[in-house]
Design a protein that fits this description.
This protein folds into 2 domains: 91 residues, Glutaredoxin (3-Layer(aba) Sandwich); 126 residues, Glutathione S-transferase Yfyf (Class Pi), Chain A, domain 2 (Up-down Bundle), CATH 1.20.1050.10. 40% of the residues are buried. With 234 residues, the protein is α+β, with helices and mostly antiparallel strands. It has a 5-stranded mixed sheet, with helices on one face. It contains 9 helices and 5 strands. The chain is 53% helix and 12% strand. The model has no long low-confidence stretch (mean pLDDT 94). Strand 2, helix 1 and strand 3 form a beta-alpha-beta unit. Bound molecules: glutathione.
């Protein structure tokens, strides 16, 4: 377990906030991208999931669900990446750039976060966890089919749009960027079948927040999956 101030882009320091995270985790990377996108620096504590550091008595007091990320701002403790991103954007980003202030724009971002939480993320877990934790060395056919089905949904959602939530990257794109870039390791996105999704992934990968806060953990995930499975790593 190691503690540091986040030093990716780090401009406005919020000393009273702490994030417990593992770079390999897409949910943690979403929060890290949101922080970098707002140029916020907080205390970060690296947790080793493989060593069970997220299950220590101290961590269980903060989050009985035994998942990461966990976030604390003074007395407030949050343990869901979507809630953390929304809180940070609502509390510390006045412009409404990441989380639109108008009810329509805000609902669209909420809708995407529900899709991420309710559909994409469970499909990520179903594909990755047997490899990470159960000695399976491939992505199972049903999981591949479910992920392809999600790619098809996402391709439709991008019709006529450059970004998911608006004319610029919002929390929708940040939250999707972490999950979809990770799914792409497990089931590569075919650019002929999903041209809009693959262009969007290329576009979002060029954003500074992705470079500073997603790439390293994504490589770590890719390397780990490569060691444990027959999934081809690019
Ligand atoms: N809905 C939660 C999901 C969090 C979650 O499942 N985190 C994973 C890491 S990606 C975790 O902590 N897994 C614990 C484990 O692998 O034992 C969120 O978005 O924060």
């Amino acid at each position: 377990m190691g503690t540091s101030a986040s030093k990716r882009l780090s401009q406005t320091g919020l000393k009273h906030c702490t994030l417990w995270k593992a770079d390999r985790s897409p949910a943690c990377r979403a929060v890290m991208m949101a922080l970098d996108s707002m140029n916020l620096s907080i205390t970060e504590v690296d947790i080793n999931i493989d060593k069970g550091e997220h299950r220590t008595p101290e961590m269980l007091v903060l989050n009985p669900l035994q998942t990461l990320p966990v976030f604390k701002d003074r007395e407030l403790v949050l343990s869901d990446s979507h809630a953390i991103c929304t809180y940070l954007a609502g509390r510390y980003c006045d412009s409404g750039r990441l989380l639109p202030k108008d009810p329509g724009g805000r609902s669209l971002v909420d809708q995407h976060m529900h899709y991420n939480s309710g559909t994409l993320y469970p499909r990520f877990r179903a594909a990755a966890y047997p490899i990470l934790y159960e000695n399976c060395n491939f992505v199972m056919p049903q999981q591949i089919a479910d992920i392809e089905c999600a790619y098809s949904d996402l391709e439709s959602m991008l019709l006529g749009r450059t970004w998911f939530g608006g004319s610029w990257p919002t929390l929708s794109d940040i939250v999707f960027a972490s999950t979809i870039s990770t799914l792409n390791i497990l089931v590569p996105i075919d650019k002929n079948r999903y041209p809009r999704l693959s262009s969007w992934l290329f576009r979002v990968s060029e954003e500074l927040f992705f470079v500073t806060a997603n790439r390293k953990g994504l490589s770590e995930f890719s390397r780990r999956i490569g060691e444990l499975s027959q999934v081809q790593q690019s």
